[in-house]
Amino acid sequence: MSRIELVRLRRIDMPLVRPFRTSFGTQTARDVLIVEVVTEDGVSGWGECAAMEWPGYSAEYVDGAVDVLIEHLVPRVLADRTLDPQRAHSQLARLMGHPMAKSALETAMLDAWLREQGRSLADFLGAVRSEVDCGVSVGIPTSIDALLSEVGSYVDAGYRRIKLKIEPGWDIEPVRAVREAWPDMPLQTDANQAYTRADTALLGAMDPLDLLLVEQPLPEDDLRGHTLLAEQIDTPVCLDESIISTAVADTAIAFGATSVINIKPGRVGGYLEAKAIHDLCVERDIPVWCGGMLETGIGRAANVALAALPGFTLPGDTSASSRYFATDITEPFVLQDGRLRVPAGPGIGVDPIPSLLDEFGTWSTVLDGR
Ligand code: OSB
Ligand code: MG
Hints:
alpha/beta; Enolase-like, domain 1; TIM Barrel; seven-stranded parallel sheet; 13 helices; 21% strand; binds 2-succinylbenzoate; binds magnesium ion
C-alpha cells in the first residue's frame, strides 16, 4: 500500500451558464472545493466537494467543508499516511456529519489508489454499462414561456428525462404546461423539502400528469410524513435529502416512505456508501438513479461511473458539461444520443486541466502534516 505525501485543497469559481433557482435559493456560480491527494510516487487523485456556498440543501457549506477538512478530516488521514480508502472510510466515520467533505477526501484517495492499480472507478464499483442515460434538472425560471423554451432546448439536445424543480406557487401549472407540450417525455419533479403534510391534496393533484416520481416533497427528517403522503397519492415518492446513509435507506424503504431513491455520493459520504445503498436497493427491488450537485467534470466523471451500476435503471441528473458551464475544468462531457460515456481510464478516468484550475482558482492550500 502506498503512502500519502500531501493533500491540496483548491477553490475554483465556476460561473453557471444560467442561474439555477430552487426552493432553497438561486445559484449563479459554483464555488467548487477540489481535493487533491498526492502520493509519495507523485500520483494525484481527485475529489470534488458537493457543498454549496450556503447551507440551503443540507447543513454543509463550502467554508464549513474547508474548515472541517483542514482541522479534522485531513489530519486523520495524514496521521498514518496510508493510502487505503476503505480504512479512511472507517476512520472518518468516527467523526460525525460532514458527508460532502468526507466524500471529497475519500474520493481523492480512492482515485489515487485506483490510478496506482491502473483500474477504473467504474470497474471497481461494478459497472455493467459503458454509457448511461441522462436526464436534466430544470430550475425555476421567471415564466412558463421561459420554462418551455429551456425545456425545449434540452429536449432538442436529446435528454431522456426532464426534472422540474417545484415549490408552492410553482407546481401544477408549469408541470402541466410541460406535460402538454411533451406528452411522452419521461417527467419528474423535485421540491427540495418545500411542502408540508398539509399539501397532500395539492401534490396528489399532479397524479394525472403521469410523473415518474416526486422527489423530496417534505422536510428531510419527516420520514413518516412521506409514508403518509405515499399512501395518499399515485405518483411514486423518491427521497433525496432524507437518505443520508444505508441505515436510513433501509428504514425509509421498510416504512414505505420511498419507492425510488436518488443516490448522491456527496450526501451519503462517498462512493463506498453510495455503492452499499445501491446494493441494498437492488436487494429490495427499489430503483435508483444518480443525482447531481452541479458538478464539474471531476465530480461528474465519478457520478457517471456510479450510474453505470445495474440498479441505476432511471436516467440520472448526470447532464453534459455544457448544461452547466461554458468551460469545464476537464475535457467536457458531451451528450451523445441522450447518453454520457463512462470514463474507462484509471481512477475517475479524467484529469483537471492545470491551466483551467489556475484560471478559475480563487484559493488553495497544501496540508502535509509536517
Ligand atoms: O436536489 O437534486 C437536487 C442541484 C443542487 C442541489 C440539489 C439538487 C440539484 C439538482 C441539479 O437538482 C442536479 C444536477 O444537474 O447536478
Ligand atoms: Mg433533489
